[in-house]
Amino acid sequence: MTQQELEKYLWGAATALRGTIDAGDYKQYIFPLMFFKRICDVYDEEFEVALKESNGDAEYAAFAENHHFVVPEQAHWNTVRETTTNVGMALQNAMREIEKANPDTLYGIFGDASWTNKERLSDETLINLVEHYSQHKLNMSTVPDDKLGNAYEYLIKEFADDSGHTAAEFYTNRTVVKLMTMIMNPQPGESVYDPTCGSGGLLLNCALHLKEEGKEYRNLKLYGQEINLITSAIARMNMFLHGIEEFSIVRGDTLAQPAFLENDELKKFNVILANPPYSIKAWDQKGFTNDPYGRNLWGTPPQGCADYAFQQHMQKSLDENNGRSISLWPHGILFRDSEAIMRRKMIEEDLVECVIGLGPNLFYNSPMEACLLITNNNKPTNRKGKVLIVNALKEVKQEKNIAFLEQKHIDKIFNTYKDFKDIKTFCKVVSTDEILTNKGSLNIAQYVSNVNGDTQQITLKEAITNWDAESKKLKESMNDLFQILN
User: Which of the chain's ends, N or C, has fewer CB atoms near its CB within 10 Å?
Assistant: First the structure.
């Protein structure tokens, strides 16, 4: 199969579910089923190789050391395929048996979908799904890791398109992911962490970035935490299907129960990339005030907006010598009054290296404008006491109700970050003293509208456009304030 044929084949399973369950729930069933098929087909392939090596010794061929994952005979795809009644129970039992047989790697990876609920999934529907995936082998020789991994990412994108507003919980615009990875530039052997990892796109892209550059990617240490069970399972499957084995993705609430600890303190990482949930209200503000891990470095965020709780968690988790982070946020994090004290302290400590304003519609299913906040615990000498502020709001391709960055946009923004120089009407290097004079505001329009310090003549149309943009930001700020007050 070509890449396109593979994607069409894998997506075809979703058509069997249309009308039976909500589109947002497809991923709970399709991903585990596809992963189940992959594991069994690879197991069979490895069994045949071992059988030839041992001159037909089936007992030897079944030894665990000959396989990536152990698949008990009663839990094999072919056994389930023979089932015609209570198919959901057969699938559920098989998946649990495989998890038990591989406790260190696959425990919980198939999620908690309700396979036995016949009102949602009849035997006929499940038989159709199983038969659909039985049409082709998904072993390594037929579908290599790269090919299947790309198809898996395609499915994640398709499910995001069908999921409405919940898509942002597990999917980050992949063109933004690429830009974030290029800016962080993880190196072989480094540790990379995403505290709200969703389906694992940011982590995975770090490994693929090194692979594309011809560098050693298998010793990159990937860590992620995700609060949603099925999403964390999808992230783990994503790693395996791309051939990534050195990773640790844990389900849990990052703010309430951070998963990665060393000597009763937060584990430190070289690189952190994140697209945290923004402006969440349901979090333990009181607990954060007396945080046992000392994450309230700059203060406690308001109950109605936990953004700076995540930002401080990231800062506390960074390696003190060379830790660097990049996070995707709404613009409000740059100028909201309710967070001014915390933002000011972050700037006073000379942690902020760059702020990049991105265009609208890059948050999935949201028209909101996005920005990238980049911090560095060890700024180069020529960047100390300075912040590069980039206005890249126009560097975006709009397509219907979604936007993305074209390669030319990614290259322009990345090269601007790398060069760290003024470009008229696009970016400006600003001293931290100037930012602090402006009450710690990182509002991009304050700095980049007059890049070289000269007075610029603008047309009436431009003035109206600027006024509209500032009105929109004011409205966002007021909405944030109302959320906090509520």
Answer: C
- For residue 456, being part of any structural domain is answered with no
Q: Which of 89, 108, 143 is the last residue before a domain boundary?
A: 143
279 and 413 both lie in a single domain: yes
158 occurs within a structural domain: no
Overall domain count for the chain: 2
Quote the domain boundaries for residue 434: 164-448
CA distance 401 to 206: 28
Q: What is the pLDDT of residue 452?
A: 46
The H or E element that residue 376 is part of is: strand 369-376
Neighbours of 355 (CB within 10 A): 26
Beta-strand pair 324-330/271-274: parallel
Window from 80-84, 177-181, 368-372 with minimum mean pLDDT: 368-372
In angstroms, the CA 283 to CA 288 distance is 9
Q: Which residues pair with 360 in a beta bridge?
A: 369
Question: Can you tell me the mean pLDDT for 438-459?
Answer: 70
Looking at the structure, do residues 304 and 444 belong to the same domain, yes or no? yes
Q: Is the dihedral of CA 56, 57, 62, 64 positive or negative?
A: negative
Which structure tokens are listed for 240? 């395996």
Distance separating alpha carbons of residues 343 and 385, to the nearest angstrom: 15
Residue keyed to tokens 């995707």: 328
Instruction: At 408, list the tokens.
Output: 């030319």
Cα separations in angstroms, 391 against 359, 385, 423, 424, 427: 9, 20, 10, 10, 6
Q: What's the CA angle centered on 228, arms 312 and 210, to 5 degrees?
A: 65
* Calpha distance 301→342 (Å, rounded): 8
Amino acid of residue 327: S
Rounded to an integer, what is the distance from CA 88 to the centroid of its chain? 30
Percent of the chain with pLDDT over 90: 69
* C-beta separation of 361 from 399 below 8 A: no
Nearest in space to 362 (alpha carbons), one of 174, 162, 161 = 174
Same domain, 78 and 206: no
Same domain, residue pair 132 and 219: no
Residues 376-401, mean pLDDT to the nearest whole number: 92
